[in-house]
């Protein structure tokens, strides 16, 4: 079956495209394509939108036959006129498998790679972050945009695209493995929440995430006016803004921000309640002449002012 002409997607696909956040026609776009229904639908939609797509398949080598899934993606890429690249990473057995696999995957993908996460994934992410004790930013979930262009679509939409196009998605048995918390949220917690609420809670959680994302962005804008190394200014700022200013300063170029306890300790240094504190991983923060100074290395964790 021939692929879709990018300038003439069929009516149903065109309607779905209006709900996607894909780049303009002609723009380059790298898509992470595992061969599952969501990522194959992403490939179809991105090429139908006229993007210059490169489909990248990453084999984690975690189960027999996983390397063959690259052939499924390569065939789909050819059909829809996309470029294709296969990558292989090694993820050893052990704890935090999902997190380590994700880290390995992103080590071989460009930072702005698009993924096929849907509204259902967004709802799961919100609940997972809630269970993990995340704050406002975590509860805002994934942000819609070129990296997550399908967040307004449901899994039923992506499955429908694959069926309509005659694509045979790869079935990943690990998606039902109860050892992974996301799977239990997907197959147990979300259905229970919907049953208790008497309605499908996925759109509800997605809407809440969008509202919180807007508020997080506003707080970020306001916190940008707070000098995070001016101890007096940091202590005088509203607590919500002081926390965000300190967290942004402490995070720097790191992938993840420090935890809430570390931020609280730094604010106590700014207020003169502590001499200094250590912020993981290995950043020592001290107040000096009214300014906060950070340096690498161990320090006096929680040292009290005498």
Structure summarized in a few sentences:
The chain has 306 residues and is an alpha/beta fold. The chain is 45% helix and 13% strand. It has three domains: 11-116 and 153-172, Rossmann fold, CATH 3.40.50; 119-152 and 177-222, no CATH class; 224-304, no CATH class.
Explained architecture:
With 306 residues, the chain is an alpha/beta fold. The chain has three domains: 11-116 and 153-172, 3-Layer(aba) Sandwich (Rossmann fold), CATH 3.40.50.620; 119-152 and 177-222, no CATH class; 224-304, no CATH class. 45% of the residues lie in helices and 13% in strands. It is built from twelve helices and seven strands. The chain has helices spanning 11-17, 37-48, 69-79, 97-106, 119-131, 136-139, 155-165, 181-197, 202-223, 231-236, 239-251, 260-270, and strands at residues 28-32, 52-59, 83-88, 274-279, 283-288, 291-296, 303-304. The strands form two sheets. The protein has a four-stranded antiparallel β-sheet with strand order 6-5-4-7, covered by helices on one side. A three-stranded parallel β-sheet has the order 1-2-3, with helices on one face. Helix 2 (37-48) links the parallel strand 1 (28-32) and strand 2 (52-59). The chain is elongated, with a radius of gyration of 23 Å. Residues 299-306 have low confidence and may be disordered.
């Amino acid at each position: 079956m021939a692929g879709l002409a990018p300038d003439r997607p069929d009516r149903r696909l065109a309607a779905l495209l209006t709900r996607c956040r894909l780049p303009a026609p002609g723009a380059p776009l790298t898509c992470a394509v595992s061969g599952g229904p969501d990522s194959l639908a992403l490939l179809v939609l991105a090429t139908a939108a006229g993007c210059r797509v490169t489909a990248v398949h990453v084999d984690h080598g975690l189960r027999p036959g996983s390397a063959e899934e690259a052939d499924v993606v390569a065939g789909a890429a050819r059909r829809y006129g996309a470029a294709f690249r296969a990558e292989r990473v090694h993820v050893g057995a052990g704890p935090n498998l999902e997190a380590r696999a994700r880290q390995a995957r992103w080590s071989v993908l460009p930072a702005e790679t698009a993924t096929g996460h849907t509204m259902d994934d967004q709802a799961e992410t919100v609940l997972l972050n809630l269970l993990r004790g995340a704050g406002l930013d975590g509860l805002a979930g994934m942000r819609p945009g070129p990296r997550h262009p399908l967040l307004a679509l449901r899994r039923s939409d992506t499955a429908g695209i694959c069926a309509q196009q005659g694509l045979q998605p790869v079935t990943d048995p690990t998606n039902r493995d109860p050892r992974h918390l996301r799977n239990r949220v997907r197959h147990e917690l979300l259905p229970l929440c919907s049953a208790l609420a008497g309605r499908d809670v996925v759109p509800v959680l997605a809407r809440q995430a969008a509202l919180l994302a807007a508020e997080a962005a506003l707080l970020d804008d306001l916190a940008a006016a707070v000098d995070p190394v001016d101890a007096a200014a940091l202590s005088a700022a509203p607590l919500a803004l002081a926390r965000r200013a300190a967290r942004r300063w402490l995070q720097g170029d790191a992938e993840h921000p420090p935890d809430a306890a570390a931020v609280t300790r730094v604010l106590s240094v700014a207020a003169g309640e502590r001499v200094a504190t250590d912020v993981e991983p290995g950043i020592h923060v001290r107040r000096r002449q009214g300014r906060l100074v950070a340096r690498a290395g161990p320090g006096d964790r929680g040292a009290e002012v005498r």
